[in-house]
Structures are given as C-alpha cells and as structure tokens.
Design brief:
about 110 residues; alpha+beta; Glutaredoxin; four-stranded mixed beta sheet; 5 helices; 4 strands; about 15% strand; globular
Length: about 110
Amino acid sequence: MSSVLTPELKTTLDKVVTSHKVVLFMKGTKDFPQCGFSNTVVQILRSFNVPFETINILENEILRQGLKQYSNWPTFPQLYIEGEFFGGCDITVEAYQSGQLQEILEKAMCS
C-alpha cells in the first residue's frame, strides 16, 4: 500500500495536533458523534471540563488514511494531548479509570 501521508499532510497534522492542547480525531463531531467509541471519548473529555478540538475524519478519506500512518494506530478515535498521540478509546478509558488521564490533562492545562 502506498503512503497517503505526504510531507504536506504530515505538516498539516503536525500543526493541528500542536495548535490545540487536546485534539480528538473522531467519527463525527463532539456535538454529534457518529460512533460509540468516539462518543465515549467525548464524554470522558467533557467530564474533565477541558477545552478540546474535534476533527471529523469521515469528511476526508485522505486525512483518515493519512492519520493511521501518522499515529501508527489503525482505528478511530485518536486522542492527542499536547501534540503527542495518547491513544484510542480503550487506552483513554483505561487511563480515565486509573486516574492517569486526569493527571495528564491537568498538567496539559497548566503548561
């Protein structure tokens, strides 16, 4: 399979994930999630009352395929915190339940 992650797309993704402290690439939007996993992560982020940006990957197939290569993660949603890939739904839920996500988000909001 050829790479859809062009240097231009990588630069764009770098800008997106670093221009917001918390970015969620998801199916749908935070107000209208179009998949249960995306909705779960939105609800977790809302529970912390932190500002976060969502990007609907259903609107752009190249973005969707490129992100899989960018993060080296095959599924969505994909959560980025302070420019770093954090994980998908399962990792986010685990980190939420263990309290780790709260610490990471608090640290991100303070920086």
